[in-house]
Design goal:
Aspartate Aminotransferase, domain 1, 15 strands, Aspartate Aminotransferase, domain 2, four-stranded mixed sheet, 2 domains, binds pyridoxal-5'-phosphate
Amino acid sequence: MVTSEKVRPDLPNILMELPGPRAKAVIERDRKVISPSYTRSYPLVAGRGEGAIVEDVDGNRFLDFSAGIAVVSTGHCHPKVVAAIEEQSRQLIHMSGTDFYYENMVHLAEKLAATAPGGAGVPRRVYFGNSGAEAIEAAMKLARYRTGRDKFVAFTGAFHGRTLGALSLTGSKVVQRQGFGPLVPGVYHAKYPDSYRRPEGVSAEDHAVACVRWIEDELFRTLLPAEEVAAIIVEPVQGEGGYIVPPPAFFAELECLANKHGILLVFDEVQCGMGRTGRMWAADHFGVVPDIFTSAKGIASGLPLGATVARSEIMDWPAGAHASTFGGNPVAVAAALATMDLLASELIDNAARMGEHILDRLRDWPERFPHAGDVRGLGLMIGIEIVHDQRKKDRAPELRNRIVEMAFERGLLVLGAGRNTIRLSPPLIITRDQADFAVATLEECLRLVE
Ligand SMILES: Cc1ncc(COP(=O)(O)O)c(C=O)c1O
């Protein structure tokens, strides 16, 4: 990456009004041939990336606190990940793990099983697909197959993907569902506990427990027989719904409910897993061992890979029951093995440290900035909820969008999550200086929109 002597290579450098001429030209061509269903918050045309820095096609450099939607866990083009990809792509790019064996696929499954919540004491098997949605589809099919039941409980605000099965569980934005029905029948949504928006006078724990009790006391008594439910599918930290962290009581209560009725507990760790929260899996914060969990996004530092990890006795289905041509592709698996080594050796710890540092710096924002309604997070999964009025907590999506755009103009890439939350999901390699730059930039934006 080209940098002038005065410019620090680890911080942004904006050279012109954005978008620059090359970016403009690409966006113009994009408009004609690319599906308009994509959601671009601002005109970033990425050219190259290194660590937490992305350079656009005009040479402007940005600090990436989006990580390609929480994907490049080891940063852009980590040398060890690149080396693993290069080496593997010289040896073998594809054979199909569905019909043949790859040693590295076994190795990766062994590693995932060894780090899974519950540890080595819980034998696990792994199914590999290519994305988060595919990992969820596999979990849904497996849960139906093993239990002989066909219904699911998911949560409001959840995002599990856009294929028809995963979309049926998704309860994040109506535009994602509108016009696509009928979806998979038998999916019921319960309220996800949002501590910031809990009823007045009720503790966060009591609110979370009440959300689960509603499933038992209302849903299972009025609409949905518990014995027809295959699985409860939940994000341990809600991602697209707004970076919401429930109290541990929620998961303890869910586990009890699932056990009581022979329902499988499925954790969607697609966004919150792979070290992002400062532990390998978000479930590790809550002391609950899911029957099945899913991973994708950060697992292979940007190569497409999804994994569905289940207790061995649950992932016991016949040959041909489920498979995918590309799932567990050798190059993606090599990237995942390098990613997991980096996570274990340093990056999970760094995520915990940097996350704490950023949260410490943000904690007093609701007192300092009238539009900062709530600040929350675990590790490097941090949300800042933007409201018009702190007392009324009325959501301010336009203001949030404006702040996201202003941050872009200042060289900081962040994305929104939920209706009115700014999400911070940087690569797990960020330094203290980069964290401080991001905080200072957002402070400036918040001051300016006041
Ligand atoms: C929690 C969660 N599950 C599933 C998905 C779907 O993943 P993909 O876009 O790879 O299909 C996402 C994507 O944002 C996600 O955040």
